[in-house]
Recover the amino acids of this structure.
């Protein structure tokens, strides 16, 4: 029986056949298992003779099965290696190189321009609470302006308790203005910061994406007035668009967190259908384009942040970074910013 088992194991063509043989010899109903069961009925003398022989047979068959299995696996591995050889003489696939994204590029440019004007960069969390995003910015619970922000709220169960114990709902910040609040509270006055970063609103079309970027500017000091705001914006926009003929038009507007509030338009010239920034928007062939929101920080905001509005005043502005990039580089679809398409980057001259 030993020799027959050896032959059949050696001839097994694959792992399935080998497993069938194992069951045939060593399984519960197997032939060798059957022999082992006969030992109980034997006389002591007979058992002394047959016992070691049956056990040796089982050892031999177990060993042969294991050996054959290892050989099969080795052969399979070698076949796989042989079929997967790497041809080192083939040319390597061309690696796609990325570039600094226009949004990052613009944020770096802004940080540089404002650093020259004495501003530092401040940051804050993108997951905010409604106190920092709204209440401290003079938008209490029932304020209608809250509804204008198309806010992404987290479920009510995730609300946290504020300093006064009242619940604060968590949300994705709808603007970078809460960074004003956080910085005034943590650093006090005087202050000169810009706060670039991601903001979120439930909105999507060619000029709106649910996530976009803003940069907030804030100056808090003694005797700050609108003239400082106008000069700062003019200086910044001339440096950013690299043109000395940038002309601004300031229009009265409304934001809860500024008083007075000012919408800033920038003059452009029509070249064909293209709007090129620069020049007086009232001149023939020119027009005005709405660019950013700004104003003198509302005294309610200054006191909510723990400062005395009699001593400290300031101005603030907020502008879309994506919009600045679109204007500077002539891009027309905001959604393409987030597609990660290298051809788009190259088309606008961004490459490594
Ligand atoms: N936070 C405003 C917005 O997102 C922009 C703004 C900032 C306006 C600062 C005035 C002052 O709409």
């Amino acid at each position: 029986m030993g020799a027959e088992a050896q032959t059949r194991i050696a001839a097994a063509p694959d792992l399935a056949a080998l497993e069938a043989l194992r069951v045939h010899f060593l399984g519960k109903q197997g032939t060798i298992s059957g022999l082992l069961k006969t030992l109980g009925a034997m006389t002591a003398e007979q058992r002394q003779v047959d016992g070691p022989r049956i056990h040796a047979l089982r050892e031999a068959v177990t060993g042969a099965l294991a050996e054959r299995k290892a050989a099969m696996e080795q052969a399979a591995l070698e076949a796989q290696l042989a079929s997967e050889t790497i041809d080192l003489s083939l040319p390597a696939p061309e690696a796609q190189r990325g570039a600094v994204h226009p949004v990052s590029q613009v944020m770096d440019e802004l940080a540089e321009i404002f650093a020259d004007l004495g501003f530092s960069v401040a940051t804050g969390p993108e997951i905010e609470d409604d106190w920092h995003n709204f209440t401290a910015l003079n938008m209490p619970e029932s304020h209608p302006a809250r509804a204008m922000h198309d806010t992404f709220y987290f479920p009510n169960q995730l609300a946290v308790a504020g300093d006064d114990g009242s619940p604060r709902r968590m949300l994705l910040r709808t603007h970078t203005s809460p960074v004003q609040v956080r910085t005034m509270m943590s650093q006090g006055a005087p202050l000169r910061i810009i706060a670039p970063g991601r903001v979120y609103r439930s909105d999507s079309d060619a000029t709106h994406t649910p996530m976009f970027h803003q940069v907030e500017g804030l100056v808090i000091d003694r005797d700050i007035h609108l003239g400082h705001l106008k000069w700062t914006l003019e200086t910044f926009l001339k440096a950013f668009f690299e043109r000395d003929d940038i002309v601004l038009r300031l229009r009265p507007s409304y934001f809860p967190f500024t008083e007075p509030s000012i919408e800033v338009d920038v003059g452009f010239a029509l070249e064909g259908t293209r709007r090129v920034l620069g020049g007086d928007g009232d001149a023939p062939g020119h027009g005005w384009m709405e660019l950013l929101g700004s104003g003198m920080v509302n005294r309610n905001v200054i006191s909510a942040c723990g400062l005395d509005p009699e001593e400290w005043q300031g101005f603030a502005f907020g502008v879309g970074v994506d919009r600045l990039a679109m204007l500077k580089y002539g891009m027309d679809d905001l959604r393409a910013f987030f597609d990660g398409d290298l051809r788009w980057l190259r088309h606008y001259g961004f490459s490594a």
In short: Residues 175, 177, 216, 255, 258, 293-295, 316-318 surround phenylalanine (CB under 6 Å). The CA atoms of residues 15 and 69 lie 7 Å apart. The longest strand covers residues 258-271. The radius of gyration is 38 Å.
